[in-house]
Amino acid sequence: MTSRHESTAAARIEEQGFESTKISDVLIAKGKGADGSWLWCTTDDSVYDAVKSMTQHNVGALVVVKPGEKSSIAGIITERDYLRKIIVQGRSSKSTKVGDIMTEENKLITVTPDTKVLKAMQLMTDNRIRHIPVIDEKGMQGMVSIGDVVRAVVSEHREELNRLNAFIQGGY
Predict the structure, then answer these.
(1) Digit-coded pLDDT (tens) for 26-58
(2) What is the DSSP letter of 46?
(3) Which of 8, 29, 117, 161 has its CA 20 to 30 A from that of 154?
(4) Longest Cα pair distance anywhere in the chain, in angstroms?
(5) pLDDT of 19 higher than 80
(6) Four-residue CA torsion sign, 93, 94, 96, 102
(7) What is this structure's pTM?
(8) Are 103 and 76 in contact (CB under 8 A)?
């Protein structure tokens, strides 16, 4: 027979919702003004300018939009695109347009703000990507990196460990 205290404590653990962190929580934690939350360039920008922007903001990817249409995502450009499609192929970053080397919108892997962090981590791992745009019915909401996702999972696991320790020690 379970005591009332044990069953309410178990219900509280369930209520906390282990592994329930969503991508929207990650975006909130990053903050609206956080570097990398929503940096962009256009398809007409030179690859050189895009890479310069990534370097200045210490990020590994930029969302690409069509000129004059900031709400319409055209794709994503990453450090990998630069290495594989400019450096290795011996192309000029100053004369190549972002639109020529980006991953196009129809090939993008994206998540929504409601996507669970663990699901996003799985998508990123399975597809060997480090940045994933967050899009909902209103359009682009931000971008998260594998680092953002790992931090959220570690934090969630740390909180769960603390809850379990408190439960075991009877201080729940």
Answers:
(1) 998 887 544 445 789 999 999 999 999 999 999
(2) B
(3) 8
(4) 75
(5) no
(6) positive
(7) 0.77
(8) yes
